[in-house]
Amino acid sequence: MRILMVGDVHYDLRQLDWVLARAAEHELVVIVGDLLDISSTVPLDAQIPVVMQYLQRLAERTAVAVCSGNHDLTGLDADGEQAAGWLARATDFGVVVDNGSLVVGDAQIDVHPWWDGPIGRQRLESRLEALAETRHADGAPRRWIWVYHWPPPDLPVSWVGTKSYGDADLAGWIDRFHPDLVLAGHVHQSPWIDGGSWISNLGPTWIVNAGHETGPEPSHAVIDLDAWRASWWSYDRSEEQSLEALGPVAQ
Asked: Taking 70 as the threshold, does the pLDDT of residue 251 lie above it?
């Protein structure tokens, strides 16, 4: 069973077309945030219905999970913090969005939102605590995968060339709850720069960031759940990494 992972498409309809064309080849498509683009000449309220149409068409072909990113925040939630409230409407098509979960093969995939204040942060931490309690229940899936927009700091997957750009809260949660794999994005350039990578680990947890490049085909990763192996493709190269043991990325 295979997961196709992309992120940071930023309202590039060519890249969404590419994902749509390949969705049926995978048991799950994961989009790790920033479907919208706040710098686009197309207003956000005009981008949203187009993206929703793509999500509906994707869900007709395979299972789909999408988390929000910072570009996806379009208004205040009930607590007065920025949120991607529009994304919840995709559940009408069967898309798993922020605060949702699904099981694929022997893996439980939990989708986490981009939070924008202390209430959202505490809500996410409380959810992680509740999810962690179920991890050892009889019949629980063997692997635990998180979908979260940006990676933890001080790792190759969060390196921008001059500094690390990651989420310290996520690092703390990984250290506390030990997911097997985190699928992230947000840091566009890390797979291509010296000191950066598309994959690294924090303790026993692997983190994959497929990065972002312009063009009709997005940089992307595929997680083979049966082989427990990750592979990554960009315009000019591809790499693989076994997830069975910690070690350097295969070149």
From this structure: no
pLDDT in tens, 216-228: 999 999 999 999 9
Dihedral (Cα; 39, 12, 86, 62), 10-degree rounding: -160
Contact between 181 and 201 under an 8 Å Cβ cutoff? The reply is: no
Is residue 115 within 8 Å of residue 121, measured between CB atoms?
A: yes
* Residue extents of the structural domains in the chain: 2-242
Find the Cα–Cα–Cα–Cα dihedral 53, 66, 166, 189, rounded to 10°: -50
Q: How far apart are CA 57 and CA 50, in angstroms?
A: 11
pLDDT band (50, 70, 90) for residue 203:
very high
Average pLDDT on 13-37 reads: 98
CATH of 2-242, one of 3.30.430.20, 3.60.21.10, 3.30.750.24, 3.40.50.10800: 3.60.21.10
One DSSP character per residue, 199-241 reads: EEEETTEEEEE-----SSS--EEEEETTTTEEEEE-SS-EEEE
Question: For 20, phi and psi rounded to 5 degrees?
Answer: -60, -40
Query: Which pLDDT score, from 0 to 100, does residue 48 have?
Result: 98
**Strand 229-233 versus strand 238-242 pairing type:** antiparallel
Based on its alpha-carbon atoms, the radius of gyration of the chain, rounded to whole angstroms, reads 17
User: Rounded CA gap, 58 and 72, in Å?
Assistant: 19
Cβ atoms of residues 63 and 105 within 8 Å: no
Count other C-beta atoms under 10 Å from residue 56's C-beta: 16
Does the predicted model carry a pTM greater than 0.85?
A: yes
- Distance (Å, whole) CA 230 – CA 143: 14
